[in-house]
Specification:
261 residues; alpha/beta; 2-enoyl-CoA Hydratase, Chain A, domain 1; Lyase 2-enoyl-coa Hydratase, Chain  A, domain 2; 2 domains; six-stranded mixed sheet; four-stranded mixed sheet; 48% helix; binds octanoyl-coenzyme A; EC 4.2.1.150; Enoyl-CoA_hyd/isom_CS; 3-hydroxyacyl-CoA dehydratase activity; ClpP/crotonase-like_dom_sf; lyase
Length: 261
């Protein structure tokens, strides 16, 4: 039996697909589900067989319709703060997984669901996806990183508009403002996510990893610090077999055979 009650976890050919599986509550994130995500992120981080992670939601209606409102409603101030801190730690862990993480957004990505999608490196949306941060309708701001990640992804003005109005936007609008990387037909969503995963897996694992590290570590500093950091990870790659192989393959006009070493 699976260790996870609210997640389905499949690992095939280097691609791990995590499905948030509480379809009756539109995959809302309660404490158990967040605990399972936390545990699974730790496991994935240590698993060299996992090359790319895809996160999606069970059913055809929701990716994740938010943090579980019935769980949160009775919380006091200290518990609310702890809940936000815990959720932020889990999403930070997902954001900083060594593997690239793709959100396959199959339906509603609201509140904590939009925040989970934004903690992923890349968001592919089904035409049926809807994004939004409706927390201001509930008397709270986003608490799992939404105020920060949305503003970084789409800019301050658009983020404030989405947060203040609680408007839900469709996939086309999410794509237009840079929240979704691409939009595909619902039936093509998982294939599109897997095709992107396979393309990423064909690149140098070291190169990809260092791109992620440089962006995640560098972007929240000033430009000078960020580019200095980039030079460090760039230099580090010259001590790897991937760099020697990638450049040799180019010069020898052949396909590279990357080992991720
Ligand atoms: N929490 C708990 N249950 C939910 C949630 C949720 N976020 N979303 C949906 N459900 C449940 C519904 O209660 C309903 O249950 P039941 O069948 O037992 O009545 C079931 O899922 C199906 O939902 P609906 O009947 O409402 O389906 P509709 O198709 O009519 O509507 C919507 C779909 C528009 C997605 C609607 O369900 C909705 O508005 N959901 C809530 C969306 C929302 O407000 N999300 C944000 C939550 S707050 C949040 O995420 C904050 C994150 C940070 C927390 C930090 C805390 C400190």
């Amino acid at each position: 039996m699976s260790d996870y009650q609210n997640l389905i976890f499949e690992n095939q050919d280097g691609i791990s697909v995590i499905t948030i599986n509480r379809p009756k509550a539109l995959n809302a994130l309660n404490a158990d589900t967040m605990g399972e995500l936390d545990r699974l992120a730790d496991t994935l981080a240590k698993d060299p067989a996992v090359k790319v992670v895809i996160i999606t939601g069970a059913g055809d209606k929701a990716f994740v319709a938010g943090a579980d409102i019935s769980y949160m409603q009775p919380l006091g101030a200290v518990e609310g703060r702890e809940w936000a801190k815990f959720g932020q730690a889990v999403f930070n862990k997902i954001e900083n997984l060594p593997q690239p993480v793709i959100a396959a957004v199959n339906g509603f990505a609201l509140g904590g669901g939009c925040e989970l999608a934004m903690a992923c490196d890349i968001r592919i949306a089904s035409e049926k996806a809807k994004f939004g941060q409706p927390e201001s309708t509930l008397g709270i701001p986003p608490g799992f990183g939404g105020t920060q990640r949305l503003a970084r992804l789409v800019g301050k003005g658009r983020a404030k508009e989405l947060l203040f109005t609680a408007d839900m936007i469709d996939a086309a609008e999410a794509y237009r403002i840079g929240l979704a990387n691409k939009v595909v037909a619902p039936e093509e969503l998982m294939d599109a996510a897997k095709a992107m995963a396979q393309k990423i897996m064909s690149r140098s694992p070291i190169g990809v990893r260092m791109c992620k590290v440089a962006i995640n570590e560098g972007l929240d500093t000033d430009l000078e610090t960020g580019v200095a950091y980039e030079a460090e990870v760039f230099g580090l790659c010259f001590a790897t077999a991937d760099q020697k192989e990638g450049m040799a393959a180019f010069l020898e006009k052949r396909k590279p055979n990357f080992t991720g070493k």
